[in-house]
Specification:
Helix 4 links the parallel strand 3 and strand 4 (144-149). The protein has helices at 15-22, 47-62, 94-111, 126-139, 157-160, 163-168, 174-184, 234-256; strands at 28-33, 69-71, 115-120, 144-149, 194-195, 227-228. Helix 2 (47-62) packs across helix 8. By secondary structure, the protein is an alpha/beta fold. The longest helix is centred in the last third of the chain and has 23 residues, at 234-256. Strands 2-1-3-4 form a four-stranded parallel beta sheet. It is built from eight helices and six strands. It has one domain (20-253): Rossmann fold (3-Layer(aba) Sandwich).
Length: 262
């Protein structure tokens, strides 16, 4: 069979395609995770889902077509209770997402796939996917599982974004608005809200970090934005896009060229 003629998307394969690919000792599935949740008055509900879908799509285009790497359909709805109270947010329960990941993962393992990358773009479900990945390994020990966050470990972010944006621009702020302007500018509204929370939290504590709190967006924001979206621009968005693509291309290539963990 000529793997070059086989699509990247798992759902477009035939069952013999799946059987052949999964038998490869490096067979790997990427499963992108996002959310359907408010992103201020200026960004679409699917912001996180769009980010992960577009970035991974660009990464896959750079990959040699013959490698045994396929992408599951992006999971658009996620765990977003912190954004309830803003119209449009649809949040699934943590139990449901955990169960879904385990059920799908076990079936992939039964097909013979060796590795599953859970690539997530929604900060509010990082811990949840880490937990689901660990529980999946417990019931499918032969399947290596990699719960990853789209923005984690990306070198060069500090060269493009201020310290304040990196620490306090948590939602629909400068980085996300700029990246959406680069990816789908037609979905970006004209408003540029600023909802700064710095100085409103006791010293040494944070919304996310070493001493976090289980915050709700309504605690700090009327617009749904946490941070400052003013100054967002397409040029910055294109630079962020390049960093993300290059980072994940390098990491996934390194994985696909290895037999790890065997």
């Amino acid at each position: 069979m000529n793997l070059k003629s086989i699509p990247r998307e798992f759902e477009y394969l035939s069952w013999p395609d799946v059987k052949n690919i999964s038998s490869n000792k490096r067979s790997t599935i990427i499963w992108p995770f996002g959310a359907i949740e408010q992103h201020g008055p200026h960004l679409p509900l699917a912001t996180d889902s769009i980010f992960v879908n577009e970035i991974i799509f660009e990464v896959l285009k750079l990959m040699p077509s013959e490698i045994p790497l396929k992408k599951l359909p992006t999971q658009y709805m996620g765990f977003s209770p912190e954004h309830k109270g803003f119209d449009g947010t649809i949040s699934l329960t943590s139990n449901l997402i955990n169960l879904m990941i385990k059920e799908v993962g076990v079936q992939l393992a039964d097909m013979g796939f060796k590795r599953l990358i859970l690539i997530n773009a929604h900060g509010g479900q990082i811990s949840l996917l880490n937990t689901a990945a660990r529980e999946l390994r417990a019931v499918a020990p032969k399947l290596s599982v990699f719960p990853c966050f789209l923005w984690s470990g990306v070198e060069g972010l500090s060269d493009l974004l201020t310290k304040n944006e990196l620490e306090n621009g948590l939602h629909a702020s400068l980085a996300e608005t700029s990246l959406m302007m680069a990816l789908k500018s037609e979905l970006v509204g004209e408003e540029r809200p600023s909802e700064v929370v710095k100085g409103r939290i006791p010293e040494g504590w944070s919304l996310e970090g070493n001493a976090p709190t289980a915050w709700l967006t309504k605690d700090f924001s009327n617009s749904g934005v946490i941070g400052d979206s003013r100054g967002s621009n397409k040029e910055l968005g294109n630079s962020l896009k390049s960093l993300l693509i290059n980072h994940w291309y390098k990491l996934i290539t390194n994985l696909m060229e290895s037999d790890w963990p065997n």
